[in-house]
Amino acid sequence: MTISFPRQSARTRRFTLGAPRGFQVSPDGSRVTFLRSRHGTDPVTCLWTLDLGIGDEPAGEERLVVDPRTLDLPGEEDLPAEEKARRERAREQAGGVVAYATDEELTLAAFALSGRLFVTDLDKSVRPLKAATPAFDPRPDPTGSRVAYVSGRALRVIEVATGEDRALADPEDEQVSYGLAEFIAAEEMRRMRGFWWAPDGQAVLAARVDETAVRRWHIADPANPGTAPTEVAYPAAGTANADVSLVVLRLDGGRQAVEWDRETYPYLVTASWGAEGVLLVVQTRDQKTMRILAADPSTGETTLVREDTDPVWLDIVPGVPARTASGGLVWVSEDDAARRLIVGGEPVTPGGLQVRSVLDVDGDTVLFTASDEPTEVHVWAYDGSGLTRLSGGAGVFGGRRRGGTTVVTGSRLDRFGIETTVMRAGEPVARIASHAETPSLDVGVNLIRGGEREIRTAVLLPAGYTGDEPLPVLMDPYGGPHAQRVLAARRAFAEPQWLADQGFAVVVADGRGSPGRGPAWERAIHRDLVEPVLEDQVTALRAAAERFPLDLSRVGIRGWSFGGYLAALAVLHRPDVFHAAIAGAPVTDWTLYDTHYTERYLGNPEEDAEPYERASLIRAAAELGGGEKSREGAGEETRPQVRDMRPLLLIHGLADDNVVAAHTLRLSSALLAAGLPHSVLPLSGVTHMTPQEVVAENLMLLQVDFLRNAL
Question: What is the pTM of this model?
């Protein structure tokens, strides 16, 4: 039976189910582990291995190690609150084994299902450990003898052989936790973990998080008034963050605090504990200074390894710091022109290559991703003698490397699907299959460069369009920091193509502030989230109209999260250009968004509120309304006039703990007070993601109906 594209997209979680991910490689390069569900509509993720010629097995044979459906589990996934929060922060849409950790030799893996802890020897032997429940974020020590995990905000250790279980650190009160990443770290710093094993497995470096000073918000479920609201420690811009410190916890009971100037450097960006010792990265609240510190685990003393400063802000790059086998520090530094790879204190990449992340350090070889064209992301290797690009053709790639074995995975512009190749000595030795479905439509995307700034823009037209009549336009941006929509990956444009097939020319543009074009491009939005982002969308629209037959008298715009903010901003600030908007989960008042993200771009509102006022959609609504009142006659009460307003649909999940529903509700109140008509669609039980199949499908259909009526 043929199903609609919206239903197919919803069932496949936007075509992510069945795709391999979560790769790890053994130290000798002979084994690769990865996650993948059995087919493209299967939401239950399994753990697999690829053995590259081990024993009598043929090289390249995939083996299923863990299928959660074969384990003794309840029918419905019963996730602890910490795991629900982690999946929300990671934007995880699947179930099953969605995260796992291994020992150093890649012979033992640990994972949690429904709050229970399991281990496997990666040879089909899977068993539960009698750990405290709910168990969260289990990680084996490097020797594979024991597993550390978090339960009840306490950090615990269980012996694999005997099942002996004990707490390494119990919280002093309910506001303190050990081994967990606080909200800011997980949501904005991409640090999803809160503890790190010593190389000998005899101690753990753990984050102690005290949320006493953090403001509490309450996320209610209005559809079920008998359900108590969920309390969330949410550090909104200008308010107190969690107090994060580090402590070394020895298995013999010893305990040593790690000391640094936490008042000046309150943000713990990342930490690691390798053969060379403990490294941590800390950052000032204004994010203009970042330090790498080396810590002595026996005394807790720290010494400065490197300090980077910037007059605007410093971005966090995944995968660093690290060290090569010869001891060289691996880091990424930036100037106005480029974000460059640093090895042993020297830049090793040219100015035109923008480093995105460091994937692995294998001996003296550094595997990293970088872009010389912002729509493409490639895998590169630096081995001390020079640079080698390992991915070919236009696409977006990532990878892993260890023991001389390199995994390169990614998507291409000229075809659907994810391709994963395992290489040795530069030659492919195996491929890992993807079971992800292919969209039930073909994509015809045109990548252009708009205006003097050469804004990377994608234009999609309806299938079979002959160009006889100009098309109404749908702008479909994200348009903000840390996310790109215009990428050389065909799978990224399946949904925009479906929207185009409904009778629109769809235009997707990455303006200033988006990644991939260097620090100067990203920092052009400093203290101003209005003019640059909006101007670049207008520029991209007009550039597209010069190339394609677009009807600029009928222009709609839609977006989610920052894109939702941008969509509402467009009709409030530029109704001359944009004639309808759909704003999903929009940030309408930036003082309601979190510290680390918002203060990076707008500063601290306690010190200067003007950038926040300028970016406020609530203020824009009041100004558009004019605040005027009229009188029907003498003595009558004044009442607001109903004013002209471009059609605006606000959509928000009421369970959203990232961009809380208060954003949409406050904007709606401001619009109503200003006499500006609009529509609001509340989504009961929906978070910042919309993974529910029926919700995701019908949400797309409702948006199309709204746009057709509005345009």
Answer: 0.94
